Amino acid sequence: MEFELLRVPPDRQQIRSYGPGWFDVSGVRHRGSILVTAERVVALEAETVEAVGEEALEPLVELGVDLLLLGTGERFAVPPARLLAWLRERKIAFEPMTTPAACRTYNLLLTEERRVAALLLALPA
Predict the structure, then answer these.
(1) Considering the domain boundaries, does residue 86 fall inside one?
(2) What is the CATH number of the domain that holds 98?
(3) What HEC string does 44-101 produce?
(4) pTM of the entire structure?
């Protein structure tokens, strides 16, 4: 799926398109799952929301992220309680949704200059 590019500053990481097993963020293709913020993209080893470790979310604290969109793949999945507790303890709001919905929402919130991040599980290849 390719997106109509929205007006965001050129130094921000914008999701341009995605497909089975990959994401194009600001013209760079990333294979597998990723954590994307306005400042950077971090590769993740996780293929399911249950496999996401808290250590993968540490950049959120460093960057002062207010909201994490949890893209759980092609189907909605409830994140594990340990992950939600970690986010609550750090006062980071979260919204689980499918990966396609998280990509669209992230881009929209980025145009509003929100302190948002998206953890995007790759769609099956």
Answers:
(1) yes
(2) 3.40.1230.10
(3) CCCCCHHHCCHHHHHHHHHHCCCEEEEECCCCCCCCCHHHHHHHHHCCCEEEEECHHH
(4) 0.91
